[in-house]
Design brief:
This protein is mainly β. It contains three helices and 32 strands.
Amino acid sequence: MSSRRAFTLIELLVVIAIIAILAVVVVLVLNPVQLLTQAQDASRVADASTINKAIGLYILDGNTSLGSAGVIYTSLPDPTATSTAGTNCSGVTLPIMTTSTDTYHCAASSTYRAVNGTGWIPLNFASSSEGGAPFGTLPVDPVNSGPQGLYYMYITNGSTYELLMHLASSKYQSIQQNDGGQYADLYETGSNLALAPLDFYSSKNPYILSFDTAQPYPLSGSATGTYTLANTANQTTSIYLAVPSNCNIHYSLLAPNGTYLQNNVISCGNPFYWVENLSSVGTYSLIIAPPSGTSYNATISIATTTTGSPIVNYATGTLQDFYGGQIAQDPYSGTAGQQIDIYVGNISSCYTFYHLYTPTGTSLFSQNSCGGYFDLSNLTLPVTGNYVFQAVPQGGVVFDSPVVISQPVTGTMPLNTTTTVTTHYPAQTAEYTFSGTASSTINFFLNGFVGCNPRVYVYNPDGTTLINDFLSCSSSAYSGTTTLPQNGTYTVELYPNSQTSFSVQTDLIYQ
C-alpha cells in the first residue's frame, strides 16, 4: 500500500513566492507598457509612410493644390461639427496658436476618416486615376488624443506640405530627433519641414500663472511656452516679461474668446512691460516663442494694482509695490479749490509715471520722474471727493516710496520787517502776501534756503508775473530790486524744488 505525502503550507508559500518573483521579473524585462508604446510608434511611422506615398500619387495625378495655407489640419474629429465642412476645432483641446494668422481645422466625427476630401486631410484621394484611394480610410493616431498630444497634423502652404506626429517610445526617439525637422519631439515628414508654426507636443500642457507672483520659467530648445491665467474679475494688471540675453522673442496675449490683445516682439535682452485691462472673466493665454534653435528663461509677473492706506494731509504715507511693474496707488480725499503740493521720495529708477485721478476717473496730471524723487506744487483740485494718486513703474522695478500731500504755508509779509517763512514737508510751498503801491521801489532779500534751485515768484495784483527767478545750488540767499507797477496785494511764492523743507528769513524794504 503506497502512501501519498501532501505539500506543507510552507512549501506552498515558497512556490507562490517564486512564481510571484518570476512574474515581476518577466514584467520588468518585457515591459508591456513600453512594448505597447513601441507598437503604436511603429504604426505611426507606417502611417506616415502610407500618407506620404498617397500624397505623392495625388501630386503625380496632376493635382497642384494641397490645401489652404495657414491651416493646421488635425486627425482629431470635432464632435461639435454640424456639417462635413468641419470646424476650427473649437470643441477639441489643442495648444493655443502662437500666431494670429494660423488656425486649426478638425473634420466632423462622421467624415474625419473619409478619403474624398472631407476627412482630416483635405485631399480627394478617391479621385486617383490609379483606381481610387490607396487606403479605405485615412490613417489616424492609435491614441488620437488632444490632451495627450498624440494626434497627426497636416500643414501646407498650398504647394508643399508637412506631416507631424509624436513618437512616444524610447526606441523611436532617434528617428524623431534626426528627421531633419524643426522639433526634436515631433516626427516630421513631407516636402517642406519648416511649415509648423509651433511645437505642438511640448505646448500641450500650459504653465499655470497666478496673479501677484514673479516666477522664472525655463524652456529649452526652440520650445514655445504657453501660459494660462484664470481671471475672475474685471481688473487692471501690470504684465512684466524679462527674457535676458535673448533677441526677438515673440509674445502674444489672448483673451478667453481667442482675441489677440498683444502680438509683439521683445528686442534683444530688454525686459518688456505693459498695463492690460483684463475685462473678461475666463482663461487668458500668454504665449512666448523664441527664434528657432534658441532657449530662454523668462521671468513673468502679472500683478494686480496694490492699494495702500489713504493719504492724509501733512502726514507721510507710502506707495509700495511688490512685483516687477506692479501699479501702486493710494486714495486721497480732496476739496474743490484746494491747493496741494505732492512729494514722492526714494525713487530708484527712471520713468516711473505718476498720475492723479479725479473722483470721476479723469486724469488731473500725468508726469514721469527720474532722479530720486518726484514733486509737484500748487495743484488746484477741481471737485470734492475721493482722488487716486498712482505710480506706474516702467519695468521690473519694485519700490517702497514715502509720499506726502501738503498744502501751501500762507501768511503776510509786512514791509520793512523781517518775516520767517517755514515749511514742514518736502516740496511744500509758501504763499505770502504784502500790500504795495504803484511806482514804489522795494528790495527783496531772502536768506536760509537749502537744496538746489529753489524758485522765487512774485505776482502782481492782477495775477501777472513780476519776478520769476531761482537760486543756484551753491547759494542759500536771494536778493533783488524791483519797482511795483500796480496798487494792491502782491503774492510771493517760494518753491523749495528739493527733497527738503526750509526756514527762510525774508525782508521787503522800501527804498
